[in-house]
Amino acid sequence: MRALAIILLIGCSWVAAIREPSDHMSDDFIDYVNSLNTTWKAGRNFHKDTSFEFLKGLMGVHENANTRLLPRKQFPNSMRATILPKEFDARKQWPNCPTIAEIRDQGACGSCWGCQPYEIEPCEHHSNGTRPSCEGENPSTPKCKHKCIDGYKLPYKQDLHYGKNAYTVENNVDTIRHEILENGPVEGAFTVHADLLQYKSVNHDFKRLVKLGLNLKVLSGHTSAPSKRTATFLMWPCSQGYRPISLLPVMSKLFEKLINKRLLALINERKLLPNHQFGFRQKHSTIDQVHRIVNIIEEALEKKNVCSGIFLDVAQAFDKVWHEGLNHKLKKMLPYQYVELLESYLSRRYFCIKQEDAYSEPRTINAGVPQGSVIGPLLYLLYTCDLPETEENTTATFADDTAILAVGESNEESTQKLNRAISRISSWTAKWRIRLNEAKSVHIDFTNRSIVYTPTFINGVAIPYVNEAKYLGMTLDAKLRWKEHVKKKKTELVLKLRKMYWLIGRQSTMTIGNKLLLYNQVLKPVWSYGAQLWGCTAPTNRQIIQRFQNSVLRCITDAPWYFRNDALHRELNVDSVDQVIKQRASAHLTRLRDHLNEEAVKLLDVEDLTRRLKRTKPHELA
Fold this sequence. Notes:
Elements: E1 3-4, H1 21-25, H2 27-35, E2 40-42, H3 52-59, H4 77-80, H5 90-93, H6 98-101, H7 173-183, E3 192-193, E4 199-202, H8 206-220, E5 229-235, E6 243-247, H9 250-270, H10 286-302, E7 306-312, H11 323-333, H12 336-346, E8 349-355, E9 358-359, E10 363-365, H13 376-383, E11 393-398, E12 401-408, H14 411-431, E13 442-446, E14 457-458, E15 461-462, E16 468-471, E17 474-477, H15 483-504, H16 512-528, H17 531-534, H18 539-557, H19 565-572, H20 577-593, H21 598-601
Parallel strand pairs: 5-8
Antiparallel strand pairs: 1-3, 2-4, 5-6, 7-12, 7-13, 8-9, 8-10, 11-12, 14-15, 16-17
């Protein structure tokens, strides 16, 4: 394809001879362009019988464009040696030139044929599209007013400026910058080709281009400054003060997904994460971790032992990651290319607070991993992967939610084991600048016996002693009967139902199908979470949840008093609580058989379990 020159072209050294018009207007030419699989698609924009001379005039093509070229300005060698400033503002260089400081909208003013658009409906010109044809009576040309903006005092004729000299400059970045520095803004021109007449649509492979750009980041070991910006919104969660919610750039998240995929493969290959860590890992769930804890507690109760547990609270876990410490650990675990890339990713990050339409001044982030990011949780797992363990204790972690269990024949023995573990953990947290929140951490003894409390300490501060502990959304009472868990769930369900009763109550005009949808999406997940574990509770406790479901279904359907609950479940195709428990337990056991973590697979080893108490075990619910 040979180039056609536009009348506005400046600085072009030559224009090739124009091909025969039939070549460019034929279907074969369109098919040829599309066969090249370029970044755009060709199609017919004009009728094939359209005169090529008409198209040349439409594009402003001249047969002998060389005669219209402007002279080229020559720069002296002394100017070429001038050091250009790093920054330059033309508005400050020429403060008396208002057209540089503010470019006004000239869409509806001027004195030429292109002063403003015609007031006509969209139509098709020389093509067969979805709009009507433009053929017919042409509308009258809009009247051009010799003024631009109301209130602009300078008369129109005095506001006109004509160039006294026109020339081209060398197509070179430094040359153009010198010209801007000396004489102000320049105009650019470009060359178009004959195939522009058949331009139909863009066909950029965006995904491929983005992936290429992100891979260049990986190869260079550097992340750009725009990808390190964070806009933080302040949310108000009850009485705990503002909670920051961070929004990261989209391109940053795409980059993180690419790195995260590669890091996960490397981490799994080198087994960098301990088996007790279940957080943010593929095919690991909160229920799997809680099941580990429940299994240890039940075994201790069966053997008449005491299982003492401490549930630690890490203060601002993700926000307080020490960057230098993390880089030190990464150098021991990952190839240097990843270390340099992650170091660039974490360094020189900044954030600003957004409140409605106002932004604060940017502030530098000196610690922490970006919350809301893709790679942030994984970096936290690598930072805490060397949490000290002891053979006499069991460690269970889900990201920063940490539980330490110790079993002994007495609570004094189990507490001593805990204190030894806490001593090592306290030294480790002090070394890596991690702070444990003593006031929010809890100590509990799981036993059926009456015992005397033996305190445990973190940094010399006694840990609060409780009779029930909440871990990953499950309430564990001292005798592991799940009664307190069911009570708390019932209270939560009643509060939620009150807020949405106007939607699913008897007086609501919403359809039964939509009411059931709300129940299944809002209320049912509250009690069904962890049903494969708390389903081991006594039948009287399970009936508490069943009665709640019965009342909700009766409200949804406005059922009369004589309509049976089992018939209501059958008509609405809703499973009972016991059926849901059985389904969840069966699915949970199936997952454990194919689990990637050997700690989870051990939960299936139930052949040698001691059975002294008349209690239902999780594997017996299926």
